[in-house]
Amino acid sequence: MNYEAVIGLEIHVQLNTRTKCFCGCSTEYGAVPNSHTCPVCLGLPGALPVLNEEALRKGVIAGLSLNCEISNFTVFARKNYFYPDLPKAYQISQYALPINRKGFVAILDEQNEERKVGITRAHLEEDAGKLIHDENPRGPSYIDFNRCGVPLLEIVTEPDIRTPEESYRFLTAVKEILQYTGVSECNMEKGELRVDVNISLRNRGEEKFGVKQEIKNMNSFANVKKALEYEIKRQSRILKTGGSLRQETRLFDQMKNVTVAMRSKEEAHDYRYFPDPDLIPLVITNEFIEGVRAVLPELPEKKRERFISQYGLTRYDAEILCLSNKTARYFEEASGGYKNPKKMANWILSELLKELNQAKIEIDQFPVTPLMLKELFELMDSGEISGKIAKEVFSLMASSGKTAGEIVDEKGLRQLTDESHLLSLVEEVVEENHQAVSEYREGKLSVFGFLVGQVMKKTKGKANPHLVNELLKKKIEAC
Amino acid sequence: MHRETGGGNMRIDRETIRWVARLARLRLSPEEERSMESHLGSILEYMDILGELDLERVEPTAHTLGYTNRTRKDELGQSFRTETVALLAPRWARDHVVVPRVV
Amino acid sequence: MGLNELSVERLSILLKKGEITPWDVVQDLKDAVERDRQSELPLNAYIDFQEEVISREIQQYEGGANSLYGTPIAIKDVINVIGTRTTCASRILSEYRSPYDATAITYLRTKGGIPAGKLNMDEFAMGSSNENSAFGVVRNPHDRRRIPGGSSGGAASAVAGDLAVAALGSDTGGSIRQPASMCGVFGIKPTYGRVSRCGLVAYASSFDQIGPVTKTVMDGALLLEAISGYDSKDSTSAQEPVPLYRLAVGRSVKNMKVGIPEEYFGEGLDEAVRGKVERGINILKEAGAQIKQIHLSYTKYAIATYYIIATAEASSNLARFDGIRYGTRFLETEDLIELYEENRSMGFGAEVKRRILLGTFALSSGYYDAYYLKAQKARTLISEDFKLAFREVDVILTPVSPVPAWTIGEMMDDPLQMYLADIYTVPVNLAGLPAASVPCGTVAGGLPVGVQLIAGQFREEDIFSTAGIIEREAQ
Questions:
Q1: Domain match, A88 and A56 both
Q2: What's the pLDDT tens digit per position in C417-460?
Q3: Number of B–C residue contacts, CB under 8 Å
Q4: Are residues A117 and A12 in the same domain?
Q5: A286-294 and A53-65 helices cross at what angle (nearest 10)?
Q6: Is C60 a domain residue?
Q7: Whose CA is closest to A85, among A120, A126, A24?
């Protein structure tokens, strides 16, 4: 019995508009509870919604970046149900006629083949408030309505995903795309991205779908993967032993890495969708769509390809650099007009990332700007400092924020490149080390390094080693 | 304004009334259930008159005004002070509205 | 004569000249309300008439505001006015105090109107008799054993009984026109979108409009001017400019075409009422209007269409009333579902529950196509009916109510019967058109009868001209 997992994802992404979807309250995260509310998002009697044009625009941007068809005519609908974090007892969402449909995101499956995961729809809706519970398990619950009304994009995939790892890759790809297009930071810890999954098993080769299980409450992509892994095991076990599955909703327990059936009396929801009479339909013209498309930032896959062809980077380097739009941008600014982008890329991927990890900051908080990095490289290229010194200087730049020039001057690190001065030192060393020089002439080539070292000692390590090499060789051969 | 008074009709039975009441979060007494069954029954029977119409090629009315695209700019508007929300709430603690524990 | 007996037009002139102050008017109103309270069968038109609140409003009024100059206007308790209770005549909102103003109220204040008192009504605007209020029945000043009509019963009763100089009511299926007709006052429901709905507690979002209930047609024009206009906070608000409606009042109707729809004069229309409506037709004819027979063939489907859509929207609009964020929490309980059910069951009256159940049913899975969708399609046909008619005529004249005011309690056992009485008024809301009721005489027992005038979209001026003529000649 070979089972195939059929997985679909439902992703809710908060769009990073300044104000809420249907009112002018701030969407700022972490504010004093219930300080960003008004009659509209509190659901007071008589309050009416008005759509935020930026939420619409970001919805279209997201749709285009997910390769969706943008609807020319779209309508908001009421999704009716009772829950304390939902003030109007309905959520303004979309039902028939959503803004984005029939898209896809390409991922590499586990055989490293490219696969397109279909996106059924990506529609606009408003977020609900936040419920927290009293520490005492017999205590009440508390509601903060600040989050109520923040615009969301609900992305629903086709059941095209087949493994937990693919889910992980898909989520990563979607996050990357949405970060790139600037519509959301997709920070799961801040609730900017939430995922629910649907999974069923069926016999390999069969077309009919098995019984679907919905899993909720995973707060990281890694947990999504773990939850799915557990579910596959659990469902296989039941099916293998001849048992049957009931359609249910389960919660992921991250302490035990298992899923648990929800205990609450789950009545079938009848959302009674109907077009919201307080909002009027939206006509999205092709002009508008093309206008948005024209200013779309370059998407990750394109950027990667370009980095490979334009800068001669390896796919691996390109992938790491492009993991974040910010890193990619940093690299391009630093490499602009610079003759050796590969060297720049290597440095960023090693030295720079190391500094970021140590300080636990993001690249846009890094004190060394791309221009400052370019200056450091120029000093290396001109021979004024060695690669080894440059690494030290870089560390100091990261901790102090000073430029390379400033640090090199302060610490007198400029390598000696004055040939005549070096020549005199070389001559001294040759004078002082007859033995070694003869040994070298007789063929003991390893002694050369010792001689170079002697010159370096005299210059307290500041001489440019290549130049010393050259001059020493010339001197010895000339004698 | 005369209307035939039908007998109790089965268009909407007790089960359905209870299910709809649960959907609407209304609790009906047995008395109320009985009267709703009778009143809603006759009302729904009356609604059947729409069955006389040929609506196949008719579009539903979305809005009588025919407007589209009403939006607002993404600019901060007036929000309530927290005190206002507190004053409205029947139960309030620690800057939050209080409700029975939600499982 | 008490100041409460004067019209808005007259009072605003006296106020402008400084011969009286707003407080003087409020004093006379207060005395009238007091006297009525002591009477054997009080009108019970107000839910709240609070001196301190009104006095605060007067203090905030800076004076000199054209065109109402400080005239107190009573407000149906379905409209948010800061500092007042807005109960919608329901127990579930008996403790709700408005933290914000409806836009219509803001506009009213800018034009010098002073919100003064909150009027009784059918609970959540659902009813045609004002017997569905948690604050007691309202009575008709012409015969206190009879209903004033609904749902703006308090507004019509107060204006007719001189307990208010003028009022703002709301109309979803006839709730301004029918009580105006039954109480012998003027009432107009504007074109959908003419007046902002922001701050009007929603019953049926596709139909609701705020409108004036007044002693004279001119007063109606002045008030409608004051509250109309675009509101960016209401996505369904119209951007049409607001004309000076006062200039249209009683304007010549020579050669204006008045349509008489056959379907509104069939059986079911009380003979005495028919007589008064025909008088209205004759008045216009004698004033030079051309009378034309027209057909509105989908009329018989209007009640079913209206009640399905209205209750469906209402079931969703009223779902927010749960005692959690505002209003009354009747029961503190550990169980969430019980909290919802208890608060809503104790908070809502029978008619409201009935309509919520009906609306929930019409939207529910399996029934949406059969009811809600079908009704929205039927609505298109009814709207088309009117569009075609208005190519032939300027104004349509019909009765408002098939019968004059009935006695209190008479129809309470038969909700469907009461719904059917809305037959002449609901089609107008379905089509989003403006319509008014203007008094046109009385029948046996001194019971008033109104005539309905319907105009094309944003053609309120045509209503004011014809209504003005009828008002003048029907004296």
A1: yes
A2: 899 999 999 999 999 999 999 999 999 999 999 999 999 999 99
A3: 167
A4: yes
A5: 70
A6: yes
A7: A126
Residue of C470, C465, C450, C449 whose CA lies nearest to C395: C465
CATH value at residue A316: 1.10.150
Please tell me whether residues A117 and A103 are part of one structural domain. Answer: yes
* C221 near B CB under 8 A: no
Same domain? A133 vs A165: yes
- Mean pLDDT, chain A cut into blocks of 10 residues (479 residues total): 90 98 97 97 98 98 97 97 96 97 92 92 98 92 97 97 95 93 93 96 91 93 96 93 90 93 71 96 97 92 91 90 88 91 93 91 91 91 82 92 89 71 83 87 86 84 80 82
Segments of C321-459 assigned E as strands = 395-399, 435-443, 447-455
The answer to whether residues A234 and A92 belong to one domain is yes
Residue C222 in domain: yes
**pTM of full prediction above 0.90:** no
Q: Cβ-count burial of A438 within 10 angstroms (0-12 exposed, 13-18 middle, 19+ buried)?
A: exposed
Q: Which residue of A has its CA nearest to B66?
A: A280
The set of chains that have 3 or more CB pairs under 8 A with A is B, C
Show residues of chain B in contact with C303, CB under 8 Å.
46
Number of domains observed in the structure of chain A: 4
Distances (CA, A) of C282 to A270, C180, C397: 54, 21, 11
Instruction: Give me the residue spans of the domains in chain B.
Output: 1-51
ipTM over 0.85: yes
Q: Show the domain range for A450.
A: 419-478
Chain A nearest-CA residue for C200: A46
C353 and B36 within 8 Å at the Cβ level: the answer is yes
Number of H helices, E strands in chain C: 15, 11
The whole-angstrom separation of Cα A75 and Cα A281 is: 5
| C151 labelled catalytic | yes
Say how many domains are in chain C: 1
Between CA C349 and CA B26 the distance in angstroms is: 11
**A88 chain-C contacts, CB cut-off 8 A:** 319-320
Among candidates C339, C364, C371 on the partner chain, residue whose Cβ is nearest the Cβ of B47: C371
Considering the domain boundaries, does residue A294 fall inside one?
A: no
Residue C192 lies in a domain: yes
User: Could you give the CA distance from residue B70 to residue B68 in angstroms, rounded to a whole number?
Assistant: 6
Query: Which pLDDT score is estimated for A169?
Result: 94
Active-site residue, from C129, C175, C196, C401 = C175
* List C67, C128, C151, C157, catalytic entry: C151
Question: Among C12, C16, C67, C76, which one carries the catalytic annotation?
Answer: C76
Mark whether C175 is an active-site residue: yes
Q: Read off the CATH number of the domain in which C231 is found.
A: 3.90.1300.10
Amino acid identity, residue C362? A
Average pLDDT over residues C392-396: 98
In a domain, A193, yes or no: yes
| Local structure of A262: helix, strand or coil | coil
Q: How far is C82 from chain A (nearest CA, A)?
A: 12
Range of the domain at C24: 3-250
Mark whether A408 and A353 lie in a shared domain. no
Residues A305 and A166 in one domain: no
Q: Do A144 and B70 touch (CB under 8 A)?
A: no
Average pLDDT over residues B63-91: 94
The class level of CATH for B1-51 reads: mainly alpha
The answer to whether the bond into A386 is cis (omega within 30° of 0) is: no
Q: Per the domain annotation, does C449 fall within a domain?
A: no
Same domain assignment for residues A283 and A346: no
Instruction: For A445-458, write each residue's pLDDT tens digit.
Output: 888 888 888 888 88
